[in-house]
Design brief:
single chain, alpha+beta, Alpha-Beta Plaits, four-stranded antiparallel beta sheet, 4 strands, about 20% strand, binds adenosine-5'-triphosphate, binds magnesium ion
Amino acid sequence: MSKLDQRIQLVASNEFSQLVDEWRRTQSDLPSRSEAIRRLVDMGLKYEQEHPMHLVTAVIRPHKYEEVREELLKLGVQGITVTQVQGFGRQRGQTEIYRGAEYQTNEVPKIRLEIAVTSEILQRVIDTIQATAKTGKIGDGKIFVHALERAVRIRTNEDNASALD
Ligand SMILES: Nc1ncnc2c1ncn2[C@@H]1O[C@H](COP(=O)(O)OP(=O)(O)OP(=O)(O)O)[C@@H](O)[C@H]1O
Ligand SMILES: [Mg+2]
């Protein structure tokens, strides 16, 4: 291991310290708090290296689509697949469209977005969709994030990050 000769000051919340402490207690060698943070950062960096691309699938309310698209374009997203879909969540569409039948499940129209992104903008894409698509009422939708193995631009054969530029 490299010499530990750089002192880094870290200001964190109580919640953060508690999470770090909880994690380090799951480690068989009970590392110090500093060592736990070093290991967690290493894990995060390694994860990003091994997962440079993700596919974000978001199910949102149709009337939010235009605004979400506009905000995603501002982030540098280069393409979006959009599909009109129908679905239901844990209320089974009940309180969104009331049709009288007590135990009936009602599919509700939604828009599904699929966006392939590199890790540099992944978190901002998730945050932007969440902030823009939210009304605070039930049925606002969901965001699913999948590791993306490979992407190919058909016309040029470019692959992976170059295919997403
Ligand atoms: N577990 C799931 N798997 C696949 N699609 C889902 C899932 N949950 C929700 N969806 C999709 O998202 C849409 C919106 O779901 P919704 O926002 O109602 O989720 P919810 O879990 O019921 O949350 P809320 O309590 O805020 O309504 C659904 O119509 C469906 O298309
Ligand atoms: Mg719901």
